[in-house]
Amino acid sequence: MRRILIAATASVAAALLVPVALPTEAYGAPASDAGKTMSQIYRERGKEDVEFQKVPPFKIFDNVWYVGPGYVSCYLIRTSAGLILVDASEEPAMVQHVADSIQKAGFNLRDIKHIIISHGHIDHWGGIDRMRELTGAQVWATEEDWQLIEQAASRTGKDGRIPRAPKRDKIVMDGANLTLGDTTLKLYKTPGHTPGVTSFEFTVFDNGVPHKAYYSGGLGGRDGVRGFEQALATVQRTKQMQGIEVYFANHGWNPGTDYPNGSIFERAAKLKDRKPGEPHPFVDPASWQENLRRTEERVRRGLEEERQKAAAATK
């Protein structure tokens, strides 16, 4: 009995040391979705499939956790002076999932000091005001996307309701630093997907080893010639950034934008099975460079198509 008790105690202690991770079934594509990646399946199922979207939180690096639903990315960054949250999905179920995920990962919501809105599409900011209530955090967005959010909150949405939007708070300035404790985010305004997409550089740690990471609020073009011109300038600027090893995407998958060698949930599966001494699956500078190359090609094609549409409209 004494040996059994010792063994049982050891098993419980070992379980407590295991980092929060996705269950095995979260990686296997349902039979009806054969041939698709999990990142694609989560995106296509959308927020309506509430239970399916409840991805358990998982630790990506020493200081970064994934805490979002499957179809839209939300990240939590730990610093020596509190937490930074990137996006909060939508009300009501998805933002509640984000809040639950943060607590399941072992964090206190009141320790969140800053919330960054990646861009002004409601699937990213729809839950921000609720999260601000829960945390008391400062909320950041660019001037252009604060305007986009305010415009959306002034009219009825697709669901027949006026969306609840956060009140204007902090403004992201291009090239500025946001520092909390031992962590600094270098902020960028990277328009194209919206007029004021927010992206940033920062350092992540893999068992104490630093890596340079880049979070993009959206690299693609949208909304006519002007949007694609902005997106082209953004990707060309981003290509000049040196030493990026890790990419955090605002969605695991978008139509026609497969990330080379697997996106969030494909890399999460590799991370779960990673053996000591093996490379971190999210540290992949070659895939980042290939993604930029593909993105520039895609945006150039889109820009040409938009210019042709604009020319045809004037005839």
What can be said about this structure in brief?
This protein has 315 residues and is an alpha/beta fold. It is 36% helix and 18% strand. The longest helix has 29 residues, at 285-313.
Q: What topology does this entry show?
A:
Elements lengths: L1 H16 L20 H8 L12 E4 L2 E3 L8 E5 L2 E5 L6 H12 L7 E5 L5 H4 L2 H8 L2 E4 L1 H10 L17 E2 L5 E4 L2 E7 L8 E9 L2 E7 L8 H16 L6 E3 L15 H9 L12 H29 L2
Parallel strand pairs: 4-5, 5-6, 6-7, 11-12
Antiparallel strand pairs: 1-2, 2-3, 3-4, 8-9, 9-10, 10-11
Helix pairs in contact: 7-9
Word description of this protein:
- It is a single chain.
- The protein has helices at 2-17, 38-45, 93-104, 122-125, 128-135, 143-152, 224-239, 264-272, 285-313; strands at residues 58-61, 64-66, 75-79, 82-86, 112-116, 138-141, 170-171, 177-180, 183-189, 198-206, 209-215, 246-248.
- The protein starts with a helix and ends with a helix.
- Helix 7 links the parallel strand 11 (209-215) and strand 12.
- The strands form two sheets. The chain has a seven-stranded mixed β-sheet with strand order 1-2-3-4-5-6-7.
- The chain has a single domain (24-313), classed as Metallo-beta-lactamase, Chain A.
- It is built from nine helices and twelve strands.
- It is globular, with a radius of gyration of 20 Å.
